[in-house]
Amino acid sequence: MHVFKFGGASVKDANGVINLGNILTKYADKNLLIVVSAMGKTTDLLEELTQSYFQQKENSAALLQQLKTYHSDVLRALFPDENHPVYNQVANLIVEIEWVLEEPPMDDYDYLYDQIVAVGELLSSTIVSHHLNARGLKNQWLDARSYIITDNTHREARVNWEITECRVQQDIPAILAKEMVVTQGFIGSTSENFTTTLGRDGSDYSAAIFAACLPADDITIWKDVPGVLNADPKWFDETQLIPELSYLDAIELAYYGANIIHPKTIKPLQNKDIALYVKSFIDTENGGTQIRTTKEALPIPSFIFKINQVLISILPKDFSFIVEDNLSDIFNRFHRYRIKVNMMHNSAVSFSVSVDDTGDNINELLRDLQERYAVQEQRGLELITIRHYNNQTIARVLVEKEIIMELKDSYTCQLLVKKQGMG
Ligand code: ASP
Ligand code: MG
Question: How far apart, in whole angstroms, are the C-alpha atoms of residue 351 and residue 47?
Fold first, then answer.
């Protein structure tokens, strides 16, 4: 059994869906489970719609219309017969959102978010499944919510592995023996049948959950890059493809923010020793990265850039500050605002962290911290992480940069920097 995952960029329009079908005609046999994300930027759009509905703003109707138009354009390009059942199914899924929007928002935001945003994946998987069937690629559409069972932490649900594994094994291998399966990434359900989501970009993780529970022989994530690169081409001219990576290196790269694979994806695969391939859906014959157990260290230095960092330094209001005594209180406050720490450093008298400057919730966190501590902030910084660093690679990234905070261990170097000449 094999698992393929196709992200939003790969199915952003009708041509993307056709390309997905082309890939399957080359690679597929019936033992294939396909996980798809919402099309293009649908999740962003649905997020905006949820916010607008929650705050009862006027643009909800316009945003919903945008969702409809986008999907019906794709439908018309793929299914010339307007009586094809896919039209009704897509309309019914959108009605589910309309039902939510009809009532004023009474429920918790995160709960409502999941009910609305999950529809993106239901739409894309429905369209993909019908397209494949129409091309003779026989498949069964499955609702991932019947298999991936989670707790009720909406927007960041935690998987109940025992029940999930049991559900997956109960019927999916038998279906895969007959035909392919198409299902959704990102979404799950509580044991009481309330829809949940696994966190933004969670479709990779979904694919890994299915792969680990089946268990699959391997999993392939199809992306718009040739594989895992040693830096994001957005920031670096000369990037190199890393043909082979250990699970550990992949976890670390993802953890430090390399935009390759959702950080939670690797561990379940490593536990079951399932190889992960990252390949290009554009250039399907070339390149690719294989992630699996390997003894060799990653030979190529990797660079991860995160801009828009804010350094928050937490200091004593009096002389009684002992960092250790205050750490759990500080972390609780970060957790309350869902703020992820990218780098941290503590000394006897202060505790400093670098986080993404996400605007409002950072300001709320700062106000909250100020209740108990003296707080300093420095914005507009950049965090550079180098895996397998040496002096040369450090020098390469420090041109015209000034170091604000620096951390090194044997494999990883983190540099929080600001542009020289800036405030
Ligand atoms: N559609 C979801 C998102 O954009 C999940 C994913 O694409 O992995 O976050
Ligand atoms: Mg996506």
Answer: 34
